Amino acid sequence: MKDADCVQFLQWALPQLGMRWPGFRKVRRQVCKRVERRMRHLALEDVTAYRDYLGVHAGEWSELDELCRISISRFYRDRGVFDLLRDKVLPLLAAAALDRGGDVVRAWSAGCASGEEPYTLTAIWEIGVKPQYPNINLQVMATDADPHLLERAQRGCYRDSSLKDFPPAWRTDVFSELGEQYCVRDRFRTAIEFVQQDIRREQPAGSFDMILCRHLVFTYFDRERQEDCLKRMLARLRPSGMLVIGKQEEFFPAS
């Protein structure tokens, strides 16, 4: 399938899925390859035939929705963000927990993909924050719509390429080597609960001191779904809590 044909198709299909084309511009090749494989599976000749197929098979839209899930992830993605969380944000949240007589900071990693973000969060907590607040514990709820990515997250084993931004001095503390993979040690696993949820339809119960929603809602969703997700996320956030979005993201970007 030619790139121009795929672009035209995505510009037509994404709005019908509640998504925005600009968010997919740089990652379209990942989606185009999946769409092409799906067309071959259905024995469809070209993207025009796939559009016609969608027109008469309503259930195919759910299949296409899954093909449009972007799974780019790595440890310590956007170093400045995690440095700020370690040095400023998490200590403030720990202090706030102490002030209200609590002993837990709750965080939600929305769209956690294969787990790199929540594991990075437990690493910076255990190594960078816990020594200052030994009586405060971190609990992380990590959600994603893709069950296959969550299986990888629960295994917690990664290739070296996923760790390229991770602080080298922490590697041996956080990971054990298993063949060509690096597996997260138990110390950094126990605080995380992985749950399959589609943020468009459901969110975890309870309130959170911090919600990380990066490279998901405010990149790929259209304005209506952004507004809906933001409203429900803010309802889950404590009054003194923090909402963390992607470094390059903004609320309600133009379509």
What key phrases describe this protein's structure?
single chain, 255 residues, alpha/beta, five-stranded parallel β-sheet, three-stranded antiparallel β-sheet, 11 helices, globular
Summarize the structure.
The protein is of the alpha/beta class. It has eleven helices and eight strands. Helix 7 links the parallel strand 1 and strand 2 (137-144).
Q: How does the SSE layout of this entry go?
A:
Layout: H1 3-13, H2 21-24, H3 28-41, H4 47-56, H5 60-67, H6 79-99, E1 104-110, H7 116-129, E2 137-144, H8 147-155, E3 157-158, H9 171-174, E4 175-178, E5 181-184, E6 192-196, E7 208-212, H10 217-220, H11 223-236, E8 237-244
Parallel strand pairs: 1-2, 1-7, 2-6, 7-8
Antiparallel strand pairs: 3-5, 4-5
Helix pairs in contact: 6-7
Explain the overall architecture:
There is one protein chain. This protein is an alpha/beta fold. The protein contains eleven helices and eight strands. It has helices at 3-13, 21-24, 28-41, 47-56, 60-67, 79-99, 116-129, 147-155, 171-174, 217-220, 223-236, and strands spanning 104-110, 137-144, 157-158, 175-178, 181-184, 192-196, 208-212, 237-244. Strands 6-2-1-7-8 form a five-stranded parallel beta sheet. The protein has a three-stranded antiparallel beta sheet with strand order 3-5-4. The protein is globular, with a radius of gyration of 20 Å. The model has no long low-confidence stretch (mean pLDDT 95).
